[in-house]
Amino acid sequence: MRAITFFLFSLLFMGCAGVEITEPPQKQDTAQTKTIVKTVQPKLFSSNAATKKILIIHSYHQEMEWVQEINNGISTALRKRIGTDIETQYFYMDTKRKTTDKWKTEISQKARELIKDNNPDIIITSDDNATNYIAGQMRNSKYQFVFLGVNSEPHEYGFPAKNVTGFLEHEDFIQTANLLKENDPRIEKVAFIADKSPSTEGLEQRVLEQKDHIPMEIVAVERISNFSTWQQAVQKYQTQSDCLIIGHYHTIKDSEGETIPAPKVMEWTLKNSKVPEGSFWAFSINQGAFCAITVSGYQHGYQAAKRALEIVDNSKNAGDFAIKTIRKGQQMINTTRAKQLGLQVPKDILNNSRVIEQQTALD
């Protein structure tokens, strides 16, 4: 099946150049790949009434590792039916790199217009911004939604609603703290740092709620918006804390107000920190952080797609299904970072972990 990519230029989307609606990349002969440039709003789906149309709307950009994990899960769940009785299209809001309220308002309006113009059978919204600005604003409408990867509590976006269900992303803070302690029993204090994105609002609250259930004292819970403050925090906690737990770091700004690529933030952090880091996502460990009990983007994508099929196949309302929390993840250790920190990871931990031996800059 040939992947068709629609590049929506500023003439089409009033300044939204660079946003893509595309199928996930697949291995194929690039000479056979068609790229169609449109100056009028395209119809996303075929006119075949026998196929069910699924629109996946991502909060972030296609290159982000978390997004790719989700797309892999969706593709796996749908692979036996894509090209037969299921059609999919993808829309990327790019709100990690473009974080202003103006951008979020404009790009979410374009997404809602696409929904109304193309009338998909069901929409999957990924992460908080897409869920808030699209599913939240179209709740109790005729359109059916399944959300995934949402960190905030459902009531903050107006749920429950008759046409919305989904899956919450709750990280395993307690087990990540335990994993740090098991690898370095000297740890007595921890500092939690993260950016100020919507994804970290709920995370911050859960960290505070669970602080009395971890084997160390929390000396700080800090959400940071700019890089200079991030640098100061990392340096400060070298002496005030024995380890760091790092939340999202994708919306950190430089002195000009531009978003710094997340791998660059992590790269600086690792070069300037001598204490172990814990996190909650595979991308953090792939970028060099020490350890994590991860949230699985793959599981979020897979479960959301399966739920979407269940709704369209049985002509159900999404709201008939309870909102659930996905906790299934994976224990990960970066052994390169362990060596840098002078830590000897116990064999039983290595045997039960996904081991990363190098750093990547994918994001």
TrEMBL record:
Keyword annotations: Signal
Ranges in a coiled coil: none
A family per Pfam: ABC_sub_bind
Top-level taxon of the source organism: Bacteria
Residues annotated as signal peptide: 1-19
InterPro entries: ABC_transpt-TYRBP-like
PROSITE patterns, A to Z: PROKAR_LIPOPROTEIN (PS51257)
Xref: PANTHER family: ABC TRANSPORTER, SUBSTRATE-BINDING LIPOPROTEIN, ABC TRANSPORTER, SUBSTRATE-BINDING LIPOPROTEIN-RELATED
Protein name as catalogued: ABC transporter substrate-binding protein
Native organism: Uabimicrobium amorphum
